[in-house]
Amino acid sequence: MPDLAHERERMIERQVARRGVRDSHVLGAMREVPREAFVPEGLQEFAYEDTPLPIGAGQTISQPYIVALMIEAAAVRPGDHILEIGAGSGYAAAVIGRIAERVYAIERHETLARLAAERMARLGYDNVEVRTGDGTQGWPEVAPFDAIVVAAGGPAIPQTLKDQLDIGGRLVMPVGDSQREQRLVKVTRTDATHFEEEDLGGVMFVPLIGEYGWAEDARPRRPAEARSFRDPAPAQSIPELIRSAAEPLPDLDDPAFGALFDRFAGARVVLLGEASHGTSEFYRARAAITRRLIEQHGFNIVAVEADWPDAAALDRYVRDLPVPPNTEPPFRRFPTWMWRNTDVEAFLAWLQVWNMARPRDARTGFYGLDLYNLSASIAAVLDYLDRVDPEAAAVARQRYGCLTPWAKEPQAYGRMALSRGYAACEDGVVKTLREMLDRQLEYTGQDGESFLDATANARLVKSAEAYYRAMYYGAAQSWNLRDTHMFETLEAILNAKGPDAKAVVWAHNSHIGDASKTEMGAVREELNIGQLCRERFGDAAALIGFGTHTGTVACASDWDAPMEVKPVNPSRPDSYERLAHDSGIGRFLLDVRAGVHEPLRRELIDPRLERFIGVIYRPETERWSHYSACTLPEQFDAYVWFDETTAVTPLPTRMREGPEETWPFGL
């Protein structure tokens, strides 16, 4: 179990204060209230994640930032009497109670109301009263209130609640024409009959069910009041705007599929994402786009989220390069299906045929950017130095000897380095890379391609040493080391191939979308390849994300567990994926660059949830395991949509029979 007091402070700093909540009353109250006491048994370790969590009865405890934002907007102060509607677990009422003199909380689910009241009693919060009832009718017998906070979205602000505000009182509530499109609204009562209204931005809450809210069947109980808090609703809903802007995609095998991406051919780097590591349509689409960019637009680098030594085996196949002795079979470690699948095999077969019709120096290479295969990279560096500089090889062997005991299980090195309090092997691996780079002219005179391979492996060893050490200090540090390594490797390949080199990158959406436009950067201080490419190449970097609504996916339930094919849950109602699904178009390209579809871009700019499935998929905890808030039109330049998708078909990992041309996956 993590140190929850530390996690609470970290939550306040990263998720709340850093996003702009400055009210000292709010920040102080959140420090006092243990959020873990308000979530169900078994979810305490997630209590300080930036996400809602289920609490039963189809309800959730709101994410910490939203709780803080609403309390700050309501300007809760000592001495106030507050009404909170949609008490749920009681967490927000407890936070408010650390500031206000008295809190009256209403929850329509009797079980949740009872549990919330029990928590208040157990924690000693005797200034918070919880009851079961219809929140849309308020609590007239104890009105007026200095502020009302409504943690559920309605079609309009009930007049009953406005009437229960004191003069100068504030009401904060989500409002929207549908339960999927809401705005957070602040109402201030200026006198007996007048109210000022302010739009605080887009949000997504559970529906406000009651006499003056939504009915159980999602229809408003009463006609919605006129809403002056924002401009008139757009003539089209967001799904309708998507339908108007979307460019339907032809079959994946149709040459016209790739042609739709010619608009990005002027970029130096085109980054193609995926919403999971096990979806066939994502691999096939990237292959079709990459073929077009290679055939028609001179791209000569395919760089993928795979380890350098494994990808190098495939590169030797597609470019007909000699195979070094003692080469490990590629992609035999978990997750084997990520690159050892029929879709990748088909692309490599095409690339090999394409390259064989071209001069050796005009062939397109296939390169890995990642840093996990430490043992193979150590072997590759030593083999290279044995050939070109035996004395340097002897020195490197001695330096790498520090890492050798952990080469097959580098996580163990991280634990050791942490316990000893220093980077035990850092100096040696850094010196080996630096000396190889210092002797670049000498070494490349013998074999430039081999030098690129060797230095990439040396860079992997250096980065992997730091990565596995950082794993034990924090997720952000290790993530940033990994993505910085991948970006530096990409830069090294581009530099080696010359000023006219152009690269296509295949990696997960979490790596190729601009991290600064997502929770990754805003909350967790993580960067990624997409962000670094934008900073380095500007408009010469094109970031293209992929998404799906449902289908099947190849994945595992835990690291190193067997591959399974699991059904993908339908996308959440409060996600970008659901907006794309509701457009009614099965597959499309959506250009979200500034100036292309501005009405749609304005509607999409408010942060929403986006789904990220890696090699692990846990549909039973999908909301907090796989969704994160993003600003899609700033995260990507374009978005590729497949409404229903299928799992990749893995290739066997045993020795395969067959002719020599099967060798990339048949070693």
Could you describe the 3D structure shown?
The protein has 667 residues and is an alpha/beta fold. Among the domains are: 4-233, Vaccinia Virus protein VP39 (Rossmann fold, 3-Layer(aba) Sandwich), CATH 3.40.50.150; 235-299 and 502-651, EreA-like (biosynthetic domain) (EreA/ChaN-like  fold), CATH 3.40.1660. Helices cover 39% and strands 19% of the residues. Strands 10, 11, 12, 13, 14, 15, 16, 17 and 20 form a 9-stranded mixed beta sheet that branches. A 7-stranded mixed beta sheet has the order 5-4-3-6-7-8-9. The chain has a two-stranded antiparallel sheet with strand order 1-2. Helix 1 (4-16) packs across helix 3.
Secondary-structure class: alpha/beta
Please identify which CATH superfamily of the domain at 4-233 we are dealing with.
Answer: Vaccinia Virus protein VP39
| Amino- and carboxy-terminal Cα gap | 43 Å
Q: Report the CATH architecture of the domain at 4-233.
A: 3-Layer(aba) Sandwich
Quick overview:
The chain has 667 residues and is of the alpha/beta class. Among the domains are: 4-233, Rossmann fold (3-Layer(aba) Sandwich); 235-299 and 502-651, 3-Layer(aba) Sandwich (EreA/ChaN-like  fold). The strands form four sheets. Strands 10, 11, 12, 13, 14, 15, 16, 17 and 20 form a nine-stranded mixed sheet that branches. Strands 5-4-3-6-7-8-9 form a seven-stranded mixed sheet. The chain has a two-stranded antiparallel sheet with strand order 1-2.
